[in-house]
Amino acid sequence: MKQTCLQKNTTCPDLSGIEDQRKLNTHEQSRLHRDHQSEIYVKEQCFDPKGTQQVKSFVRTKESLIAKLSENYKNIPSSFIREILNVADQQNIISFAGGLPNPECFPCQQLAESAQRVLSEKGIEVLQYAGSQGLLPLRQWIANRYNQKFDMKIDANNIVITNGSQQTLDVTTKMFIEKGDAVIVEKPTYLGALQAMSGYLPEFHPVTLTETGLDTNEIENICWQNKPKFMYSIPNFQNPTGICYDRKHREKIANILSDYQLILLEDDPYSEIRFEGEQLPPIASLASENVFWSGSFSKMVAPGLRMGWVVLPPEMTAHFIKAKQSTDLHSNNLSQYALLDFLTHHNIDDHLNKTRKAYKAQCDAMKEMIVKYLPDSIKMTNPQGGMFLWLTLPKELDSNELIKDCLSQGVAFVPGNSFYTNGDGAHSIRMNFSNSNLETIERGIKTMGAIFSKKLRLNQMTVSI
Ligand SMILES: Cc1ncc(COP(=O)(O)O)c(C=O)c1O
Questions:
Q1: Which CATH number fits domain 74-98+349-464: 3.90.1150.10, 3.40.50.10940, 3.40.50.2000, 1.10.10.410?
Q2: Of 47, 21, 56, 99, whose CA–CA distance to 432 is shortest?
Q3: Which end is more exposed in the chain, N or C (fewer Cβ atoms within 10 Å of the end residue's Cβ)?
Q4: Structure pTM?
């Protein structure tokens, strides 16, 4: 008497919730069943005792919506960092986990004045829809600054203002990556980039990151064997390690890009917060036709503005604008106007020097406390800028175990796994130094030291038994 009714049958009336089951009589209910495997209720066609055909559609459970999520979406890794930040926020713990700038460096008063000024003087333009490429004078400001700094020939027409450099990552990967495409990334690399790219189902080819830059022989081998069209890297004070590529590595990578017609997304949000050592040229200045050079005001001014930019190879500008349009029409207009006003009324280098000084003090304090409190077998990088340093642990210590003990004692950091595409990283840790004061840095690392030393003794004893 019964047969399955396909969901596509448009004559089926749609019942819209599990409560509707109560409206059916027992006879009908016995005809309804649940597909336990997929957790989706299925529709059935059934006949009542008089032989009249009654078609009942049945509920979609919450699970049925989850089952509909796309393969692309499901491939995006979740952010351990965001989860830790939630815990850190709730419990007021000492957090070396988030990638947060030092809030004392935010120019709150100046930005308040700028926002006030642009709203009262140009309110209509500020509050109206705007062009997708971004405010021209702001693009000119960026072009002038980097043309002077690196002797480049950037044209403001090839700059697009973005809602932070995370958007540049998202738009660029949308433009280039298709399922199965070979993509070169650093090993380890920025989690937000892995999230942005993973949604397009690439095949990642992680390349070893040495203290002076990416292993260029490995890059060339991948170019030969896998014909990648896209590479992502962070040459300045890399997130998560704090490593900065030296000049030789930059030049070699620039040559590889043109030899193999490889596109590089050079993610560069940290170069302006170098607090030691000499300024190095961006790879974009050495191979401008192959590089999308992404910058950000998040670390220069404040991340809440959500302001970044990208310098594009000229033939790519219109394509980038089209891809961005489909995401957000244009970047936040009030932020653009307020930022431009701030940049024209104040000396950005005075502001940046204060930030650099604060970050150097925080980084030095963290390095000193690591030497003082953590076991000697733990190695650290020695950043000359940025916001992070990277710890490499002996094989007896697993950062995924350590984080549980540390969280229970009120300290957070990010275990290394989050920054690898293949689950590596258990013996490493990312430490953020820019969002803790010197006293908290000492307290937090002292706590970590006690936990790490105890665990190391225990694990070494277990191994020797
Ligand atoms: C390497 C890297 N790229 C991009 C971003 C995103 O920054 P924003 O979108 O705020 O410019 C971050 C944030 O921490 C980062 O570390």
A1: 3.90.1150.10
A2: 99
A3: C
A4: 0.86
